[in-house]
Specification:
With about 270 residues, the chain is an alpha/beta fold. The protein folds into two domains: about 5-100, 60s Ribosomal Protein L30, Chain: A (2-Layer Sandwich), CATH 3.30.1330; about 105-270, Alpha/beta knot (3-Layer(aba) Sandwich), CATH 3.40.1280. The protein is about 40% helix and about 20% strand. Helix 7 (about 130-140) packs parallel to helix 11 (about 250-270).
Length: about 270
């Protein structure tokens, strides 16, 4: 019923999994696992094709019928061959090759941006793919409007990043930008506050009014945010922690602060 995956297509998957330069040059990336692939299929991303293992074909008929209805090409390969193209230790037997989508950051703030009051997250040079992916997932859960990534961040389309988002990558607005500081300045021009997490801050995060439109800026895991970002920030904020600990993981910090914003908006601003 399904064609065998050719050597050429197999190499495409391997190259898109392993090489950022290949992903950038060809504008493609991979998503692996049933949840991620389902989210991709139900999004506005373009699916090039899906590859499934023999075991998956035997056990996931409903999923494959849905792919047939949507007109998505599905190829099969042996369980052993699937392990060779998978980037996970315990493959679920399904992987998709997907066309990348580029979002112009300033399009996110063009029309009626302040109604309703939006939340954004901006990451400067967050290097760990797991952290970037987890923050995207958190942003999705908190109904953040968009996530902005500096060009020093981990690759959004790295398989580990994609996996860490648990499918949220496919329904979040995410923009990778060349000039991070310039982009933040453009947000400020639209009346959007810049709240920057910084260990040197004097202000505790929960003392801030998060009901206004804002960008939460978080920096590199070891260095934090740059001085350029500090200079243009409206507020520097911190999370109070024990003196026995230097800092929190950046993804944990993002979750704590952004859900304080959610709490304030739900409890303190019943009209919003």
């Amino acid at each position: 019923m399904y064609e065998n995956l050719s050597k050429g297509l197999k190499n495409k998957i391997i190259s898109a999994s392993n090489m950022k330069s290949y992903r950038e040059r060809h504008g493609i990336f991979v998503a692996e696992g049933i949840k991620c692939v389902k989210e991709a299929v139900n999004s506005d991303y373009r699916i090039e094709f899906i590859a499934v293992s023999e075991s998956f074909v035997r056990s996931k008929n409903d999923f494959l019928k849905e792919m047939n209805k949507k007109g998505i090409r599905v190829y099969r390969l042996s369980d052993e061959d699937f392990k060779n193209i998978s980037s996970t230790e315990s493959p679920q037997g399904v992987i998709a090759l997907i066309r990348k989508r580029d979002i112009e950051p300033l399009n996110l703030i063009k029309e009626d941006v302040l109604n309703p009051s939006p939340m954004f997250i901006a990451l400067e040079d967050v290097r760990d793919p797991g952290n970037v992916g987890t923050i995207v997932r958190t942003a999705d859960a908190a109904e953040v409007k968009a996530v902005i990534l500096s060009n020093g961040c981990a690759d959004l389309y790295n398989p580990k990043t994609v996996r860490s988002t648990m499918g949220s990558i496919f329904h979040m607005e995410i923009s990778e930008v060349e000039d991070f500081t310039k982009t933040l300045r453009e947000f400020k021009k639209k009346g959007i506050k810049l709240f920057t997490a910084d260990i040197r801050a004097k202000r505790i995060y929960f003392d801030l009014d998060f009901t206004v439109p804002f960008v939460l800026v978080l920096g590199n895991e070891s260095r934090g945010v740059s001085e350029k970002v500090v200079e243009i920030s409206d507020e520097l904020i911190k999370i109070p922690i024990s003196t026995r600990t230097d800092s929190l993981n950046v993804a944990v910090a993002a979750s704590i602060i952004i859900f304080e914003a959610v709490r304030q908006r739900k409890i303190l601003s019943p009209c919003k």
